[in-house]
Specification:
about 575 residues; alpha+beta; 20-stranded antiparallel beta sheet; 22 strands; about 30% helix
Length: about 575
């Protein structure tokens, strides 16, 4: 059998996460207890429940619905025909896509093993020259039970579609006959060993995986015993899908890495990225509900990348503006001072010894642009960013953005300095200042028109933004009558499970599928696609490609979404262990 290049496995693996149909829940082909301790990343697909459970789950029922078929076909064709430079005759036909999608019923493990740290000599020099080609630690283990013939056919077809025929040879690795495929970019390895098909980009990785599948490597020498995995273990080991990304010892990884004349190691050290230990998560089906959990874990102390997120608050200030009939709402809290301090540390490390003061020069230039010291400008922002949509047809003119502020007079002064001659009007109405900004052209520039206007409403604690000032007035009126008009915070679905999480949240989101006018959404998307196509035809850019209406959109009944899904809600928060996410789709 021809070998399968590891690159061709990626779209298949991605599609499996969406298209697996009716397999029994099964153990992964390669579990963390079998993986190399140098495993940097893995994704495990455990398989989904049977037919009855699929009908009970809203998300899976949507996926299986006949009215959703155009999307399934489009995704499958897009992933399996992902190469843009394939000739038309090489593209997979719908029948082939359907046949090969059957491969996705079985479980798999996809991962990456990092390169061993090169041994250093007593004088500090590295004992080996940098590898050429670069290390390729990707691996893929697939349970081929019952899929042997389809797998063979898929491999042969994908191999025929390669631009240049690779050089194929057979080698013995750990007592297993393995096909080696060599090309200009390197070599890949493929074997069908027992019930498994195994692919890898390095001989040593292939040998180790085969040994671990056969139980020839001691279990103690495994990823599951690493401190990073043990720390994230509570977020792994269950569900439909799980993923884990381990942050390696960055000092060793980047010790000899360079970007031009710049050492990468000092930049990573200045950013304190080694404080981040792992990124992990899993997806589970709980009856009709789908539960998604994830986390970035590490030593979440000041002076680390965790400074990006703020400690959060119990209720976002923007929430008081959101009416109960809002279609969607998203809010997040960031720590601008922490981001600024991190950028300054990295900027100083980027300059050679003795020239770190150049980072202060950048500060001086920024101060001249802002009209005030950078820390003072940062202090005017509360760190809250939010948005809401009030239109059932998802009309952009009904989209509203929120930016939390402090000290309104100073904020207005900063805005006048930054936007300068882009401000076309400014007027006060009570404690609200309305500002109109042109995103195209500049005021006072002879012969240059202004266009693409955006409207802002500045209140004592918030900047609201929308393409239409009427939308802003509507939102402000809702807040003014908040005592008599219930807002989104009073909606039971929005408050669901709130008591399960910490008091202070750094992120909050909500989407009501039932309130969407799906036919209106479809009509608007099609109209905008056609309008964009006409505009590009009349005035094409040199890189522009006229937009066309996707075939799946024209054929699909979008009402199928509301038939199965009711709402989605999620929260995120920060604690001493890191950042956590929790989402429900019901």
């Amino acid at each position: 059998m021809k070998t399968l290049n590891v690159r061709t496995l990626l779209p298949i693996a991605a599609l499996l996460c969406l298209a697996a149909a009716n397999p029994a829940r099964a153990q992964a082909p390669l579990e963390p207890a079998q993986m190399s301790p140098r495993t940097l990343f893995y994704l495990i697909w455990h398989g989904v429940p049977g037919a009855e459970a699929r009908k009970a789950n809203a998300l899976l029922a949507l996926w299986d619905d006949a009215d959703f078929a155009p999307v399934r076909s489009a995704l499958a064709a897009g992933m399996l025909n992902s190469s843009a430079d394939k000739p038309a005759q090489a593209k997979l036909t719908p029948e082939q896509v359907q046949e090969f999608a059957g491969l996705l019923e079985n479980s798999f493990t996809l991962g990456y093993v990092s390169e061993p740290v090169r041994r250093k000599l007593s004088n500090g020099a590295v004992s080996e020259e940098p590898r050429t080609p670069a290390w390729n630690g990707m691996f893929f283990v697939y349970d081929r039970t019952g899929k042997e013939m389809v797998l063979t056919k898929a491999i042969l077809l994908l191999r025929m579609q390669e631009k240049e025929a690779p050089q194929i040879s057979q080698v013995n690795i750990g007592g297993v006959q393995v096909l080696k495929s060599e090309s200009k970019t390197g070599a890949t390895y493929w074997a069908e060993h027992g019930k498994y098909a195994v692919g890898a980009g390095e001989r040593t990785v292939m040998e180790e995986i085969l040994g671990r599948l056969d139980g020839k490597v001691p279990a103690a020498a495994a990823l599951a015993q690493s401190a990073a995995y043990q720390e994230a273990k509570g977020n792994l080991g269950s569900g439909l899908l799980e993923f884990f990304l381990r942050v390696p010892d960055l000092k060793n990884l980047a010790a000899d890495s360079k970007t031009g004349a710049m050492q990468v190691g000092p930049l990573l050290e200045a950013a304190k990225l080694d404080a981040v230990h792992s990124v992990s998560g899993h997806i589970t089906f709980e009856g009709a509900k789908t539960h998604v959990q994830g986390a970035i874990l590490g030593n979440a102390v000041p002076g680390t990348p965790f400074d990006i997120w703020s400690a959060g608050q119990a209720s976002p200030a923007s929430l008081t503006f959101v009416p109960a009939d809002a279609i969607s709402y998203n809010s997040m809290q960031v720590n601008f001072q922490g981001i600024y301090d991190t950028v300054k540390r990295v900027a100083r490390a980027a300059f050679p010894q003795g020239q770190q003061g150049n980072a202060d020069l950048i500060d001086t230039i920024a101060q001249q642009k802002l009209g005030m010291p950078v820390p003072d400008a940062i202090g005017l922002l509360s760190g809250e960013f939010a948005s809401m949509q009030m239109s059932p047809s998802m009309d952009f003119t009904k989209q509203v953005y929120f930016f939390g502020i402090r000290k309104k007079p100073e904020t207005l002064k900063l805005m006048r300095t930054v936007f300068s001659d882009q401000i076309t009007s400014e007027r006060n109405e009570g404690d609200v200042t309305f500002v109109k900004i042109s995103l195209g052209g500049k005021q006072g520039t002879a012969g240059v028109a202004q266009w693409n206007f955006f409207n802002l409403a500045v209140t004592p604690d918030m900047i609201l933004g929308s393409s239409r000032v009427e939308t802003l007035r509507e939102v402000l009126a809702n807040r003014a009558h908040a005592s008599t008009t219930a807002g989104l915070a009073s909606v039971p679905q929005f408050q669901a499970r709130r008591g399960q999480f910490p008091e202070n949240l750094s992120g909050l989101s909500y989407f009501d599928f039932q309130k969407v006018d799906w036919q209106g959404v479809k009509d608007r998307w099609i109209a905008e696609a056609k309008k964009s196509s006409v505009a590009k035809t009349v005035s094409p850019s040199k890189d522009g490609v006229p937009s066309i209406v996707p075939d799946w959109l024209e054929r699909m009944n979008l009402q199928v979404v509301a038939r199965h899904l009711h709402y989605s809600s999620s929260v995120s928060w920060k604690d001493s262990k890191g950042i956590h996410w929790d989402q429900w789709v019901e």
